[in-house]
Amino acid sequence: MTTPSFVPPLTPPEQLLATVHRQGYAVLAAASVAHLAGCAPAALRALEPSWSDLPPDAYLKDGGRYRRRRHASFIAEAGQLQAVPHRAHWQPVAYNALHGGMERWFEPMLAADLAQPAWQQLVLGLAALCSQLRGDAQARWYVEAHQFRIDTTDGIGRPTPEGAHRDGVDFVAVVLVGRQGIKGGETRVFEAEGPNGQRFTLTEPWSMLFLDDARVIHESTPIQPLDQGGHRDTLVLTFRTKGFQDA
Fold first, then answer.
1. Three-state secondary-structure class, residue 99
2. What Pfam families does this protein map onto (predicted)?
3. Neighbour order of strands in the sheet with 67-77
4. Cα 72 versus chain centre, distance
5. What is the pLDDT of residues 200-223, one digit of tens each?
6. For the residues of 212-231, what is the DSSP string, one character each?
7. pLDDT per position as a tens digit, 36-94
């Protein structure tokens, strides 16, 4: 599975289920993500302006100033998406050695974004994919959404300061919203119980890495500036059937 190429190994939509079943992850082009959501690519791009209005992450234990983010939580079931009252993001130390074991109250996602039809279509499309992979059309999914901007304010930005990790959920979708004026930010995916891995760089806005969290670990390498104001924007969505992770 290891490849010297940094080009993302794109999966055609009709091979998505088989690919995730076989190797625990798949990479989708932006057009395939829009197809999964059942919306036009332009509808997803309409969500992008809010990434320029993310507040700083006040919980970084490495003392960095390179990360901005918002957070929201939902329940997806039977083709319906329900926002739940704003809550803290929490992970056990076993999955996040750097920031685990602490309640992190990030600012909520903007109501205007959550009301966009494309937002709901994207989350529900991914929830339906998760249900297909689990073979349970009636599954209830506890969803957490994270908007991230990693910038080069300090000369380097770390998309995953905790290193290679799992998230303690069933499935994870990492969507590249955009990147500007940077180098680095390489995606790395490894078997959780094996020697194989793959590395590539997502560059197309709204392309996506989709992961079976029990089977693979993942990370993104640091970014460095090529121009002033360099940054990398992502949307991370996690799906779990056993409720939200809480302290």
1. coil
2. 2OG-Fe_Oxy_2
3. 25-28, 207-212, 171-180, 231-240, 141-151, 67-77, 80-83
4. 13
5. 999 999 999 999 999 999 999 999
6. ETTTEEEEE--EEESSTT-E
7. 999 999 999 999 999 999 999 999 878 889 999 999 999 999 999 999 999 999 877 77
